[in-house]
Amino acid sequence: MKTDLHRTLDAVWRIESARIIGALARMVRDVGLAEELAQDALVTALEQWPDKGVPDNPGAWLTATAKNRALDLLRHRSMQATKADALTWEIEAQLQDGAPPAPDSTLDEPIGDDVLRLMFVACHPVLSVEARVALTLKMVGGLATPDIARAFLVPEATLAQRIVRAKRTLSEARVPFELPGPAELGERLDAVLKVIYLIFNEGYAATAGEHWMRPALCEEALRLGRILAELAPQVAEVHGLVALMEIQASRLHARTDARGAPVLLLEQDRTRWDRLLIRRGLAALERVDALGGGYGPYALQAAIAACHARAAHADHTDWSRIAALYDALAQIAPSPVVELNRAVAVGMAFGPAAGLEVADALRDEPALRHYHLLPAVRGDLLAKLGRHSEACDEFRRAAALTQNERERELLTERARVSADAVR
Amino acid sequence: MRYMIIVKATADSEAGVMPEEALMASMASYHEELMRAGVLLDASGLQASSKGWRVRYRGAGRSVIDGPFAETKELIAGYTLIQVASREEALHWTRRFPNPVGEGRDAEIEVRQVFELDDFAPGEAVERFRRMDKA
Q1: Pick from B51, B45, B33, B59: which is nearest to B8 by CA?
Q2: Does the interface predicted TM-score (ipTM) exceed 0.90?
């Protein structure tokens, strides 16, 4: 029985936590405190629901319970400092307006801004990137600490500590529970998008360990992206990121074979791509187009992914369009990794020699010195040019550099094939 | 995991009567809510069976039978596809699905978990299905 209740509560929490914490943070003006009050309401539910049964609208019940706790706390504080009176009155008025919760009340509340504020605060620049990821999953995603720790392969105590410290940092820095002003909006939004994409990528291509990917993290990032797209529908790059994640996620099941070994994009069985997600990705890209104003870095990457998605067979891929999109990406968001991808696209569009020229320019790039994909890409282009001995060296180098065991197997195999071709 | 919420046909939906404004509004609110929560994948309403047909297989032959079809309660009038992390989450969402014929009246919706190709053991049949499935 208890486990059933726990599962029900987990589900309700995942759905409702962001808006509950958001609403409380607006009241108590401290995200960490809001989160604790919301957790208290969860504990109360665990105590009361076994006897009284699960309420018709569990979300509204949790919200009301948590708000009452916040009110108690504020009343207590106001006895110590009368200046808080005005605030208490304000909250009581709010509670009276909303109470008692009608079965469908949560459907009609304008809660969007609270959740958006919560995302901005969780991804605030005073926090380390690791802390931003943990707080976002915890407070916006409604995931439990042990689940987050497992997903990121860190000890539970470490992650719990990270969250506690992050909340303290926000409190000490007096980060307001507000939407950023126009001057900093763009930068702050970038930070939110970056965290969501980081979560996605952590799931998509696990950088270490035996598993090539952890799909649950991808799904969670997609959910967060879709939420953000509804909260900030006028921001093109939000839809760009969603489009990118939808299309990449459409390939999740094609990225490994029956033994769990990785299958690279061009070798994937495209009938295994999820066409519903592709359709959603293309629709998100259309939302970018409809907003005008051109493509940002995420939309450009989504447009590249869309080129692959539209090709029924790898041979039908529009490589010259992909090369052109990488050119554009290199203009607005230059990086060695983008340049490396451009080398691949140029190699496919205009032949391996042209691609190798781009890749060779990166050989002294310090940022790629330990990046396994540089030798992997060079190895591929060299093999296509029939320079098997050099290709073999590059694949071996790549295999030694990768942190992913399955990818290492794949690269070692390619080195072996190249070595055989030399003989 | 994905779940499909299936709305059954009614005499009204079969007659091509559009739902009342209030019902449309609550359906819209509910689906907006699904979207804001990032769980909505797809949703559509189906036109009356009078505009559809069935293909019947009998022995080696097959014949086309035009709608409408009589057994209204067995027919489907629409679906909503959601993606969630647990059965309980799906349960939570579906309990809040608006009454498809309007509050206060008798009705039923059906919820089914969607198979994904990976749920089948890999084998020749699944591979063939994939090839057939190719768009």
Answers
A1: B45
A2: no
DSSP class per residue in A362-422? TTT-GGGTT-THHHHHHHHHHHHTT-HHHHHHHHHHHHHH-SBHHHHHHHHHHHHHHHHHH
**Which pLDDT tens digit goes with each residue over A225-261?**
999 999 999 999 999 999 999 999 999 888 877 776 7
Helix (H) or strand (E) holding B8: strand B2-8
Residue A347 corresponds to which tokens in the numbers above? 């190699």
Contact call for A231 and B88, based on CB within 8 A: no
Please check whether residue A370 is in contact with residue A401, taking contact to mean a CB–CB distance below 8 angstroms: yes
Quick check: A278 and A268 in contact, CB under 8 A?
A: no
Mutate to test the interface with B, among A2, A7, A14 (most CBs of B within 10 A): A14
H/E stretch holding B76 reads strand B76-83
Q: How far is A12 from chain B (nearest CA, A)?
A: 7
Q: How far is A386 from chain B (nearest CA, A)?
A: 34
Q: Who's near B103: CB < 8 A, 6+ residues apart? A: B26
- How far is it, in rounded angstroms, from Cα B29 to Cα B36? 10
Q: Determine contact: A219 vs chain B, CB below 8 A.
A: yes
* pTM exceeding the 0.90 threshold for the entire prediction: no
